[in-house]
Amino acid sequence: MAGKFISFEGLDGSGKSTLIAGVRQAFERAQSEVVVTREPGGTPLAEEIRRLILKTDGESPVSATEILLYEASRAQHVAKVIAPALASDKTVLCDRFSESTVAFQCFARGISRTEVDSLNRYAEQGVRPELVVLLDLTVEESRRRQKGREAQAGSAQADRIEREADDFHQRVRNGFLAQAKEEPSRWFVLDAGLDAATLLERTLSELRRRGWLGA
Ligand code: T5A
Fold it and tell me: How many angstroms does the Cα of residue 211 sit away from the middle of ligand 1?
């Protein structure tokens, strides 16, 4: 794989989409080919799976079904979008990847780490982010931002995962921080309470330091 694979993680509403948009512009200004994508989703079939996972009406999936749906989406996404982009030397910016499954389905939902790691490796087929940018935010601020967004005219209501209790989201946050500690050179942790311009500037500095983005 020649291209760089960078994922962005954090609680719901931590500012991933906002940061990814800025990073994408920086790569485009440097005339570097970049693919922006997301999980769950990223291909037509994977987006259908996303809808099934996040919908709030009808039958709720049990934990095993939930994780298998995330992994099914990932397998399709890796094979159809991420691996081909990396093979063509493109930079891939992905809103969430397997590290979300560890945080949400292992730390918060309670599925064993061994099982989650095994399912992740199967779906990834050897494709893993070289860098994980973590937007670390308190649960309180995450909730505040979600409410602000919901209050905006025409915006979507909370999805099934966003509706989980605060202690679930606290375990998710702990799960991200624990993974960052396990592999500090693969993770770049930002205080997501900072303003969006500062977060972008710090991320771009890190990418330049790694030699992945021109000065
Ligand atoms: N999930 C996912 C699992 O359980 N297991 C898995 O394996 C995977 C892959 C997916 C859900 O599925 C779960 C996790 C999720 O619950 P999603 O749509 O990807 O859903 O998740 P969200 O995190 O909900 O995506 P969002 O679009 O809601 O959040 P973002 O992208 O992090 O936040 P963003 O950029 O849209 O910003 C949110 C608000 O904050 C403002 C923005 O203007 C916006 O209003 N904002 C800031 N405000 C102050 N300071 C800043 N620095 C700001 N940056 C943005």
Answer: 27
